[in-house]
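Q&A log
Question type: sequence-to-structure
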Amino acid sequence: MNGQVLRGELTGLRALTDADIEVFETELLTDVETRARATSRPWLPVAPGSADSPYRQVQDRDAVVRFSVVDLATEELAGEAVMSGIDLHNRHAEIGLVLRPAFRGRHLGTDVVRVLCHYGFTIRGLHRIQITALADNHAMIAAAVRVGFVLEGTMRETAWIDGAFADGVTLSLLFDEWSPGRVLPRA
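Response status: OK
Response body:
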C-alpha cells in the first residue's frame, strides 16, 4: 500500500488523498442516514468539490488527524478514520470511523479501532481514548468492546435523528488497560 502510515491485520491507515476525498464526497457525503448518525450536526446538501465539504475543510492538525482506511486484502479504499479533540495536556482524544457501504459488515471496524489506539497510545502518548456513538450503533460498540473499551454510560436522548431523540453511549480505554494484540472473538 503506497503512502501507508499504520498497518493492522486487515486494514491500513494512510493520509487522505484528493482521490479519496472525491470518493468520500460521492459515497459518504450523500449517504444521508449514515452522515446524520455520524455527526451531531444536521445533514446539509453539499456539492462534491465544494469548499463547504467537511472533507475539504482545513482543520487544526494538532487537534484532529484524519486517515483513509485501506482494506489490505484488496488494497481498496474502505473508509475514513479520525482522531479528534486531541488534548495533549490532559492526554486524551476521541476516535471514530465510517466505512464505505461496500466494506460494512466485514469486521474491519475492530481492526481500525485497534490501529487508531496504537496511534494514540504509542505515537501520540495519550492516556485515554474515547468513543461516542449512538446507542443503537451495535457494530461500533462491539468493535470497541472487542478491543477493550469499557462502556462508561448512556447519554439519554442526546441526538436528534430521523425526527426523534436517540440515546448515545460513551466508551473509553486507558493506556494501562490497552493490550496491543487484544481483540476478543466476534460474538
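Response note: The two ends are 30 Å apart (CA to CA).
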